[in-house]
Structure formats: structure tokens, C-alpha cells
Amino acid sequence: MTISIARIEAFLFRAEVKEPVKTSFGSIPRRSVLLLRVEDTDGAYGWGEIWCNFPPYSADNKMRLLETVICPAALASTYLDPSDAWHTLTARTHRWALQGAEPGPFAACLGGLDLALWDLAARRAGKSLRAMLAGTAVRDRVPAYASGLNPDTAAETVARCRDAGFRAFKVKVAFGTETDTAVVSTITRDLRSGERLMVDANQGWDLAEARRAVPRLGAFGLGWIEEPLAADRPAAEWAELALLSPVPLAGGENVMGYEAFAGLIANGHHGVVQPDMLKWGGVTGAYAVGRRAVQTGRSYCPHWLGSGVGLLAAAQVLAAVGGPGLLEHDVMENPLREALAQPFPRVRDGLFPLPDGPGLGAEPDLAAAADWLVTRQEYGAPRS
Questions:
Q1: What's CA 39's distance to the chain center, in Å?
Q2: Quick check: 364 and 49 in contact, CB under 8 A?
Q3: Per-residue pLDDT at 307
Q4: How far apart are the first and last CA of the chain?
Q5: Mean of the pLDDT values across residues 205-213?
Q6: What does the DSSP 8-state code read for residue 147?
Q7: Range 54-81 burial, b when 16+ CB lie within 10 A, else e
Q8: In which band, very low, low, confident or very high, does the pLDDT at 381 lie, cut at 50, 70 and 90?
């Protein structure tokens, strides 16, 4: 199999929401989605998504990167397979990312392109993405948890998500001792049999604060405590917290590179490993990290907070990796999540069912999302 890219289309959508996602680093007052449609010279195509949920207008910069450097580079070569394309383009754009001081935006663009090429290759082979990665003996559903819960509306959101089929929930913390303790105690007190709660500090504590918060919140029997420290803090700080915490620590969404993930997994301070494939690595990187995490006894729980394209990609890779991990399923207001992945699977009894169709198994409904389309650009030869 070889891949020669003929055309890349980029679609930027943006929708205002009534309830922003609230985190310890700031709020997300609108939902942006940047999709890619990649077509090869034989007419096969695939869909990808580029991470752009924060800052609120970061997608605009990524659109210009696609236009000026990423797409011209991608269109200039032929590749053996999606992994070859990701490695080739990562190497080719490395100096540009350094020169522009933008390794993160470059990595996000390449991650979205990598996903589109994997979707394309799987569609061309007539296989689901999970089967393309790991063969036919893979799960057709994965456990999922409701993510993005704001502390001030968490109780109501848990009730809504429970009715929608969820059995696990994750609430934002690092808003102060009183607020954090109140929301965690309220939710855990009302959990039903078989349900569990996790918390996400979003890098919101320094070591001194984390020393106090982690044992206190962990005492509620949480599934994990996510990003209690900044992702780039020394391993010694993570080691201390891992010893102090009565529950597993989680992180990885803000880690980039094979070496960094290898170190994170080898250190053993993260019981839950959470790479975001569309921040770094695409399917190529996330599948490698996930397999290694599971092989060493960790849980692989892919991070995602965007549209249904990225959600389905995370679910497909999780099914291929295996292990006890859960799928992060954003449940906060986002009209683009479902419109851009049809038919959209519904959680039932805590499980997210995976489509049987080739590739991701879903298509963006561009007509349904037309009111939110900000801009569309096409690169490569025009359609005949």
C-alpha cells in the first residue's frame, strides 16, 4: 500500500455555548472544531480532526499553518502507509516548528492529518480502524465516562448523564479546598452501585497544594486524580504525589514525544496514561503509547475534548489497544460533537458502541453543521 495525497480540505466550525467548560486554567466559552478531509489520487478519502479547544481561537492559527507549510509539505511526497507519512512529515517540519516556536500547533496539525490518513487507509481496506490496527479480535464497545463536568453544575450533570447511560463521571477540581471538597463529597455520596468518580485538576496545583489536596480528595475513593501537577514538573514531584495518593494519578494529555511518554510510563507514577492523539502523535503515536502502557500494567485512557470525529478515533484506538481503560466522552454543551459524526453512537450501560463500518465508521454531516462553518479551504488539485 502506498498513499499519494491529491487533495486536503480544511473545515473550521465554531459554536457559541450557554455553559462554558470551566477549568482551573480558564474557561472555554465556545466550541471550535477543525476537520480535515484528505483524498488520495485514487479517490479514497478519510477524515481527521485537529486539536483546537484552547485557547478559544487557536484553530485560526492552525488553519494558516495548514495553508502555508503543512499541506504543501504533505502534498509533495508519496508514503508507504499512514505511519510513514507521520514520521516523514514530523521530520520534515521539525526545523520549521522550532523556527516558529510552535511545536505544539505543528504537532496538532500532523496528528489530525495522521488520523485522516488512517481513516483513509482503513476505508480503502474495507476495515474498521480498530481492525486495521489490531486485527479482527477486538472489542466492539468500550467503557466510557462522562467528562467535562463543571463543579457548580456537576450534580445535575451526573443525573443527566446517568439517565443517558453513563456509569462513570469526571469533575473539574482545583478551584479551592472548600469548593473541591464540597463537589466531590456530594457526588460520591450519591453514587450508585458500580458507579465511580474521577477528578481533573488540569495542572492546577503546585507541589505544596497538591500535597494537601491529593490525600484529601483521594480519601473519597476516586478512580483517579488527573494532572495534579503541571505536566513538565520533575519526576521527583510526581513520585512524591504517587506515594501520598491513595488512588492512581493520571496524566499525559500535555506530554509530547516518544521519549517523554516512555519515561512517564517507565517511572510508574502515572497509573493512568492519557495521551491526546490529536495534540501529538495521531493514531500512530497514540497506539504505540497505549500498547506500551497496557504492557506495563497501566491503564490507557485516551484524552479527548472535541467533536465526534476525534471521539470515535479515541474509541477505535482504545478498542485496539485493549486493557482496562475508559473512553473520555465530553458531555458538556457542544452542538458540533454529534453533527460532525453521523450516525453518532449512544452510551448504554456505561459502554460506548463502536460502528461496524470501515474507518471511523461515521461521516460528518456538513449540511447539519453549515450554520457553524467559519471557513473552508482546499489544497491540491481542484476536483474535476
A1: 23
A2: no
A3: 96
A4: 25
A5: 98
A6: E
A7: eebebbbebbebbeebbbebbbeeebee
A8: low
